[in-house]
Inverse folding.
């Protein structure tokens, strides 16, 4: 299986043989598991509410038990009262999920395969720009027909290009060694290079 290769001007300059996993069958359950785990691992888990025993209130009985016409009450920290404790509120916890390298790698290959099968992957010959100017990246995106798209550049890092792209909100530049399944599925279009594909084929994510 091969695909076209473009240059920075958006012109076709050749073809490239794709890694074999680009025609892999997608497993929705595995992809769901990996993406969910990734999102869980981003959670800080620092949420906290005060229980009845942690609310700062006097322990005095608000009024006498009988004869006032009010319902009986023991303390002002009751969850039924305004500013009282919270019943079964969230407490700090660790949401992290461990996944094997094999699952991560397989799901990443599936993500690239899915995007390729949907026509969302573009291979270019080089990302080189002569200066770290935002307009340089905008020109490349425009030449590739990706204006108003969420674009992930999954490439071997180039400092000048990364600096030039960092102010564009819909453009993400990620080292191919660090890219994950969630990032690939989140993007509308993926731009990569032949060098990056070789690394993706062999690198144990």
């Amino acid at each position: 299986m091969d695909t076209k290769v473009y240059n920075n001007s958006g012109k076709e300059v050749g073809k490239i043989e794709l890694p074999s996993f680009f025609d892999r069958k997608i497993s929705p359950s595995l992809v769901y598991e990996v993406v969910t785990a990734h999102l869980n691992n981003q959670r800080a888990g620092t949420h906290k509410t005060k229980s009845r025993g942690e609310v700062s209130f006097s322990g005095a009985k608000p009024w006498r038990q009988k004869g006032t016409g009010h319902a009986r009450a023991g303390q002002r920290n009751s969850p039924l009262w305004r500013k009282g404790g919270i019943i079964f509120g969230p407490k700090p916890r660790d949401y992290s999920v461990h996944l094997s390298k094999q699952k991560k790698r397989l799901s990443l290959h599936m993500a690239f395969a899915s995007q390729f099968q949907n026509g969302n992957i573009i291979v270019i010959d080089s990302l080189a720009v002569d200066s770290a100017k935002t307009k340089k990246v905008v020109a490349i995106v425009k030449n590739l027909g990706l204006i108003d798209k969420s674009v992930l550049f999954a490439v071997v890092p180039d400092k000048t290009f990364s600096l030039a792209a960092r102010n564009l909100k819909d453009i993400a530049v990620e080292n191919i060694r660090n890219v994950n399944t969630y990032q690939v599925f989140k993007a509308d279009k993926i731009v990569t290079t032949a060098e990056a594909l070789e690394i993706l084929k062999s690198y144990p994510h």
